[in-house]
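We now fix the convention by which a protein and its fold are recorded. Think of the row as the fold of the chain written in a discrete alphabet. Here is one such record, which you should read through line by line.
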Amino acid sequence: MSSSPVIELIREKLDIVEVVREYVPSLKKAGRNYKATCPFHNEKTPSFTVSPEKQIFYCFGCGAGGDVFKFVMDIEGLAFPEAARKLAQKAGVEYGDERSQPLSPEDRERLELKKIMKAAAAFYHKELFSPAGEKARLYLGERRVSKATVEKFGLGWAPPSGKALMDELKKGGWSRDLAHKAGLITEREGGRVADTFRGRIIFPIRNQSGDAIAFGGRVLDPEGVPKYLNSPETPLFSKRRTLYGLHEALPQIRRSGRLLLLEGYMDVLGAHQHGVDWAVAPLGTNLTAEHAGTVKRYAKDAVVLFDDDRAGIQASVKAAETFMEAGLYVRLANLGTGQDPDEYLNDNGREKFEQVLAEASDPLEFRIGLFFKGRPSPTAQEKAQAIGVLLETVARQTDEILKSEWVKTLADRFGVDEESVLKQLRKAALAVPRVAPRRDAPARDPMPQLERGYLQLLLREPELIAASSEVKPEYFSSPLARELFVALTELPPEERGNAATELASRFPEHSALVHELAVADLGGESSPERDAAGAARMLKRFAVQRRVKELKSAPMSPEQLQEYSRLMAELKSSAAGGR
């Protein structure tokens, strides 16, 4: 992690708890630390921990951890200079140009990718208003997309020729390799390349900060396939983590605590154009646990409104269940007219549209309504089959009160015994697959618990480092524990207050372990000084025992025999002192 007087000043002026709470409103005090469900992976039991003393965060579930800069980098997908500039503005500190800061290769690449994406977005937008973009403008006009909406979302046009964008980028000095890495050009047979988007209306896909990180393209040629095309996965863009329109919708979502999930680009444009500015869409109809985790940072309630057709209804139910598993309250709406949301808004206006949203049903009621539609008097077998399917939705509900009410609803609506429904629910709960976090859990460190505990004491109470002079590196059996201990003792006194951050910076491959040790609850009310002194004695005793065992494993020279006698006397003395 980069460090400089400016960076240290930003760190001093900002409280990581307050910064994190802007993204994770559920953060609550728990002893010396603050806890919440992790914003980086889907979980039910809070394992995300923020330490105000150490000014670091760590998740015991997925291993994410770091200081306030790392948190903003991870949660917004920013390079270090971008996160530093954002935090500097919050702290009221002047931050210089990123070129004056040391950049990692990853940071440098991300910044260059964002710049080339910005250049591509500007090119597409310019082309929309060129003579060649007339067909695209006519289409947008037919869909009643206003000029203000075009500007707000930065819509564009990709010329049908295979190299218009690449030629433009070459003029700006951009390399073919970078354009390929950004997903702007695609390799074809024979090593030739072509623009990824050709003859398509362009929808810039932005991150939460408003940077273009990918593009979506709608083909105008009726024979063109696919109808919609998205950028490939890149270092900037992950389809399963990105929601279209989130940047534009965030202000209203934060204010209201609710989010409207629609199906596609045009739906989002139409909603925002009519003042329904809390609408977003997944890039395709599949909502992922990662999407739900992102939404959960800002909203508690969600409404899902997809197309009226069979595929749209199935996708909306699946999206609702994903939201439920993430702990959100969700309702499902249906226009019932066969129209897309933007068409409905154009024909009926915002007031009627919002009335549809207000009448949205919870997922169970929505599915029950679908079952009884056209089936006023189901047979006993049809009831049993339907309840079995509906209980899959009930089993995914994380709110136990709602789950109990849903059991009553099922029993009442189907005219069956509530206890029977409960028995079936227990079976259904066992059959429901649980979504595991995609991030790998941190591997357990093999170092002995005593050595972990001693390092933890030093990281939690850095003033103890000065009193550890009698502890020798060879007391540690774990090479990693030895390395970390030596690094801690070598820290200048003025840096020991940020021992965890400094150590994580020096050992990036072990940063998760360092952050875990620094924020883990020590438990009990004992004295850290007394605990450290006791641990130091035990470290020495175990080191002596290891050496004695080593000496006894082979014939000893006179010098080794003398060392053995001395160590045995030392062990007896320490044992006597402990009685």
